[in-house]
Amino acid sequence: MGDIDPRVEEAVETFGLPAVARRRLLTGGGLFSAGLAASALLAACGPDQQSNSGGEGVGDFPKTPKWKFVFVNHVTSNPFFVPTQYGAADACALLGCEFQWTGSKTSIAGEMVNATNAAVSAKADGIALCVVDVNAFAKPVDNALDAGIPVVSYNADGAPGKPGTNRLAYIGQDLFTSGVRLGERIAELVESGEVVGFIATPGQLNIQPRIDGAKQAIEQSGKSITFNQIASGAELPQELSTIDAYSQGHPDLKGMFAVDAGSTEGVAKVMAKYKLKDKGVASGGFDLVPGTLEGIKNGHLDFTIDQQPYLQGFLPVLSLYLYKLSGGLVSPAETNTGLLFVTKDNVDPYLTTKTRFEGSDTKQQLVERSGAIGHG
Amino acid sequence: MIALRRIGDEFLKRREASILLVAIALMAYFQATTGIFFTESNIVNVSQYVAATAIIAAGQVLLLVSGEIDLSVGNVYTLAPFLMHYAVDFWGVPVIPSILLALVLSALIGLVNGFITVVLRVPSFVTTLGMLFLISGITLITSNAYPVPIPTAADAFAPWLGAAPWAEIIWALLIIAVLHAVLTSTRWGLHTIAVGGNLLGASEAGIRVGRIKIGNFMICSALGGFAGIIEAFRIDSIDPTAGGTGIMFAAVASAVIGGTALAGGSGTIIGALLGAVVLGVLRDGFNLIGVDAYTFDLIIGAAILLAMISNVHLARLRRAGRT
Fold it and tell me: Which end is more exposed in chain A, N or C (fewer Cβ atoms within 10 Å of the end residue's Cβ)?
């Protein structure tokens, strides 16, 4: 390659091509090499190259490589995480980086460990990970940190008081606290008697802390409420049947609650099917899937808790980007993506607007709002 | 030139050759596009993608060759490490006997599968489909569907049993080597092929077909249990959502990609290993390149079909060359 003008070589570097393609291009082996080399030269002479001071990147930032962040998720095809992916995509578009969405479809920790290890081998620029198992991810996260790759957890972060990894920060709902708030709300709505809490997959650390928190809050309320935890299963049809059957077998039920999106939707459907609201049964749960929102609008569900999945994609990208940009000086901060009770009073905007922020639409838009902002 | 061609012909006569070529081509592709495929850490990753699937696939080959299939093996994989955990943490049994106990119980599940299939004459597809749910229920009920850490008493054994980087693949290669020898050079292997190839002929020739089938059910199930235990040691957690139908289908796919006939009578253990390598290389490589989860399944499905099509056609070339 000795006879290649260094300027051409430099220009070709800007393509970021794999080694083989670049070699082929430079030696003229590829079909498009002449055209590509010409356009690379043009690009090299373009306005981008004129100044070398700061502010050449996005906004006022310096020019950065196209950093790549890997999101390792436990249920990659679950609708709950659609807005999370939009959040990550929007943050990447803003900052000129990219992300990969990978992990397991069915909460298999081994598959997630494999995906994390592969991201380390691939020298990813950052990893965002759902820590749904308190033991399995300790080693992979340490490996990533040893390799100089920043890691944050999102959506799930081990067990209460035991994050399970040495990640730099957790970005997501404080799960145990959200459970406590659920329990407090249950104690407000129910005086005494039998209450059930449905959980899709007990032990899964993105939902179990909620039910533990609820249990604790109910006990502390001092009311004579018996709280039963029931596993409803990982798939929606199965969850619906479980909840339906349970409600039929327990006519004295005073409340039906759930701690995951699918079970909450199931509770809403069963409440509507048997008109349980008329019998004074209280109900509520988590997340904002369409069936749940319908249930709230129609008065079958008392409330649902929003944990802002969009931010769980947007903020990890932002944190990892700033960590890279500042050479580690701006370290990711623990971020609680919130705990917002959605009730009949504030459900309307969720139902009437279709947005990327809720995952119900793909298009970018400015959502206008007016009037006072609700407060306590 | 002629010598070269003869070497080429000899190579193509081996049933595993075509799938080996596919595996090498995939590795070369991922090395060319990422430049990091052949780093030590990535080869360890690939080996961990491959090992458990290859172990189960080897057992599945023995069953497929003898004309049966085990759909429940992925759930035995989930249950076995829990059995070890119960024995160590609840019943105070030392670690190694606990693991042996888990393997014996896994083999017993295979014995029940074999008994229902051979003696009660239920097709193995149905027998093991029922067993799949039964075992899954036992796992969920006894564990309360709650993941548990590896017993601390087992810490000293962990590196040997899958926690060390190369441990899993070494186990897998040992098992593959032994079962390859069993299938190709022992009476058990010969009888297995005979039973799957011609059941009536085999039994008239005096082969105790029932015993062969039941034995292979037990081997397959025990291997499933062992794979589950070493995977639990690797990820340092015993997980009720591990395994299941995902790894079972991956194992069957590995066996089939490796050239084992679903109809019975022919198959190779080495081929199953290579099939698992192809799947593992694809999964790892896609993660290296950064293929998104949604596209992942699409491409892996297409890749399995392409690997199979090329495999079948190379096999036809091979036969044409022979005649």
Answer: C
